[in-house]
Amino acid sequence: MPRRAIQQPPSDPNDGVRLKAEELREILSDLRRHLLWWEAQGARRIPRQAGVACGGSSPVHAPATTPEERPEENLHGRALEDVRRQLGECRRCKLAEGRKKLVFGVGNPDAEIVFVGEAPGAEEDRTGEPFVGAAGQLLDRMIAAMGFERGQVYICNVVKCRPPGNRDPEPGEIAACEPFLKAQIASISPKVIVGLGRFAVQCLLEDPSLALGSVRGKWKRYEGIDLMPTFHPANLLRNPAKKGAAWKDLKAVLARLGRQLP
Ligand code: URA
After folding, report:
1. Which of 115, 121, 106 is nearest to 163 (CA)?
2. Which of 131, 138, 140, 167 for mutating ligand 1's site (highest number of atoms within 8 Å of CB)?
3. pTM of the entire structure?
4. CATH architecture of 92-257
5. Which pLDDT tens digit goes with each residue over 188-220?
6. Which is nearest to 163 in space by CA: 118, 208, 104, 228?
7. What are the angstrom distances between the C-alpha of 63 and each of 21, 35, 84, 164, 175?
8. Whole-angstrom Cα distance, residue 206 to residue 213?
9. CA of 159 to the centre of ligand 1 (A)
């Protein structure tokens, strides 16, 4: 018979209980925020495996039932390439049906800045790389103006596959990608996240009713990391008058990094 390790009792017998109560409070508050998020997105029921279902009332696409089929539950603290491996040829939601290429993210795994956009567009879907179309070219210029090369920062999206016709990603699609976005950011552990546009910022702050105008240019936090919400480069292409405000946001990012203007 294998001998069982003898556990030392905690010095204060209430420590374990207190810790559990704190953890429980944190879990309940997370759960509450998630449920409010789903509700505000129009969901009327929560699938049993939230994170693998698509759309509020759409059928579950590829239900994962065993821990082996839900590797995303074990993503924390992984290297970026492990996170990519776990994502695999993802079929966790129906976006898999229409995509050409999954667009994971690109750049420096030790980047100081992570830029987070919404979802791949047509060019990104074709190439498998985020922000390579017209908006991506403007993002490259914004990054260069900050004194970085594209390869020095990290760029990714909330959703890793192109929604058909560039429609907004649905709640289940966002939920399916969320553990991977979280793991990507945790793995890189940047000093600053730049949220590009209303949609990305709403997702990062888990508030689907948030108006970008109410938070743009103001420091927020995502998983303990400084988050600067700013305009999406596609929006800046349509509204060049907003470029000055976006530049102000990027200068605030440089200041937070303790960097001088190039
Ligand atoms: N818009 C985004 O939000 N992401 C991309 O990758 C391209 C365009």
Report:
1. 121
2. 131
3. 0.78
4. 3-Layer(aba) Sandwich (3.40)
5. 999 999 999 999 999 999 999 999 999 999 999
6. 118
7. 32, 20, 20, 22, 13
8. 16
9. 9
